[in-house]
Amino acid sequence: MKYEDKNKKFEIVYSGIETSNGVTIPKFRMNFEKPVNVETYISISDLSNYEGLKCIYFSSFSAVAEAANGGKGGIYVTIPDDVSKFIIETSNEELEKAKKEALANDPEQWFIAIGGDTHSVYATPDHEYKELRDDLTEIKKSLEGLMWSQRDLERMGKKTDMKTCLYTETGWYSVPHSEILKIYEKIEREREEKKTAKENRVKSIFEKARKTGEPQIIEDYFVECDDPEFECTDVIEICAMPDGSRYSRRRHTF
């Protein structure tokens, strides 16, 4: 898309999808001919408003600011509605295409490692648009909540020569997506079983409260004492009431 007025002349062309710092976003190449002659790249996140006008903001570190004022300050370049509309609509269309493409193909493998400092599990699917797949994000969270050893990794996958800035005690292992799905399904099944068991336990406590006419403790936990005159730990008790409601009460432990 080309635009020209008495103060500026530029062309904006969609250049493709890029992923940086875990964010996947459509990018545009912007070629200025005036007031400066420079090429730069922008995205929908660069759109802004200045004194009620639609514009694109270029930071003091940008090529545009460097060409215009030697990088002494950021620059707002005003744009007409049709340019803003082009950037927004093209971004949404291309992002939707990328999401459909992401959903059409599962990763063949995952890369798993154990952090050398934290001993936490780190997992990432081998997928170009993994950030656009909510299901892969959920699997990743579940995997990284596990406690694995190097023996577990050796049993499930193969050692790779993958290098990252993450310090690991094991190196990175490649694990087939099919195996990851089995692990995730087992995690979800156990989570659902625990949830059901907890719900049934709470139902039985409420039933006991109804039958006895007395409050029944569902759960309790320790907190700091709320009375400066005492040096103790308080207990918060969540109770099931005979009328089916819940009641929270605090008691001191001195």
Describe this structure in words.
With 254 residues, the chain is an alpha+beta fold. The chain has three domains: 2-103, no CATH class; 109-196, no CATH class; 213-252, no CATH class. Helices cover 33% and strands 35% of the residues. The chain contains five helices and 14 strands. The chain has helices at residues 63-69, 81-104, 134-143, 150-156, 177-212, and strands spanning 2-4, 9-20, 23-34, 38-43, 47-50, 53-58, 75-78, 109-114, 121-125, 158-159, 173-176, 216-224, 233-240, 246-252. A four-stranded antiparallel beta sheet has the order 1-2-3-4. Strands 9-8-11-10 form a four-stranded antiparallel beta sheet. Strands 5-6-7 form a three-stranded antiparallel beta sheet. The radius of gyration is 28 Å and the shape is extended. The termini are far apart. The model has no long low-confidence stretch (mean pLDDT 92).
Q: Overall 3D geometry? A: extended
CA-based gyration radius:
28 Å
Mean pLDDT: 92
Q: Which residues form runs of ≥5 with pLDDT under 50?
A: none
- Topology order in helix (H) and strand (E) letters: EEEEEEHEHEEHHEEHEEE
User: How many helices does DSSP assign?
Assistant: 5
In which range does the helix fraction lie?
Answer: 25-40%
- Strands, count: 14
Quickly give the structural class: alpha+beta
Integer count of domains: 3
Query: Major β-sheet, in short?
Result: 4 strands, antiparallel
